[in-house]
Design brief:
Distance between the termini: 56 Å
Strand content: 25-35%
Number of helices: 10
Radius of gyration: 22 Å
Mean pLDDT: 79
Shape: globular
Amino acid sequence: MNVGGQLLGQGIAKINPPRGGMRLVRLEAVASFTCSRCARTKTARSVAVGDRTLLCNGCYGRLQESPADHDQPSREDTTDDLAPIVAAEPDGGLPHSVLNTGLTVEWKFSVRAGHLLHGTCPVPSEMADRAAPQEPLELTFLRGRHRIRVLDEQKGVRLREQGGEALLTGLTWQPFVLPGTHVSVRWDTWKKLRLAYTPLDEPVVFGGTVVRYAYDPRIMTRELAAFDARVDRVEELVLIALRELGYLDETGRALLPQEALIRNTIERAHPQPPARKKIDGAIARLLSRGMLTWEQGSVNASGALHYPARRGATPVPLLCYAPTLRVAEREDLRNEAGAGHAMSAHRVAGHLMRIGHLGKEASTEAKAAYREDHAQAGLAGPHVLPRGYTYVREHERGM
């Protein structure tokens, strides 16, 4: 494998020194591949290559990161070349906190966009090894915490294996379930499954969306419909790139060096990438309006990005996107039936939904709908649906 050679059908632009038996390779153009560690389909220009192994940036960073990296940073890692920047992924939506008593199996997970799109639920091996495959199962959805209520019951859900991962398939998620929602699951052996959501003390508005249940703000930043990204097209592309690729802190803020943000915005905007001058202008406007701010982070010897900056690591200024978060007001909830969960029908604004990480592309109909609504909204710039997203038109939903 040499610079100028080929990998995943693309030319190799750069090969970083080996670390832990793997090399981070920079391609001349984006390519799709399946990460050997998280088993997710990725589309990127950087891929870690080992012996019969391909890893995405996030998994490579988690494997390579160690305390020694923080204490002995490589001075070759400077802000002049941020191609190998690695921003670790948030919770992958896999089961955790698994408890197997023999009579019951319990676990927790955070809903990802893929679960909502495909009607699936992750299952730990403790259940997958014991449940009869293809046998229909019954599910009960509960509102947990102090006043437990049954929200919904479903039949005909089945256990299947997809891509080496055990999943319940055939679910219909409730309309209020968002990417990032925490779910607690209990399986009474050979009997029903119970999925419970934990309500917040008060509903909140996160990035323009009403949220009623406990959630992971990092996943919401990555995958929640981008209501607050509907500005002119270049600003929209900048915000989406930052939300999808940036380092995420515990509050859901996304952070990325300016050069990395500009480069990725251009790469991901095919077939009509904006000029760098327009991206610089978009970033300046977002900063002036307070939608972006400057923060100080650092990069370690593996190229892993951290915020706040870690002592001994290479400092780097970061552009920061912070999702708006406030307690929901009466106006936000006016089309919902009180504080309960028997929701009346209500309108959902048109919004973007991320699908690129699932290996999918928007339909012709979605692109046309976005073009029409974008133009009617009077937004500046070409009315082109951003790469990696589909568009969901305004519609009515409810229970």
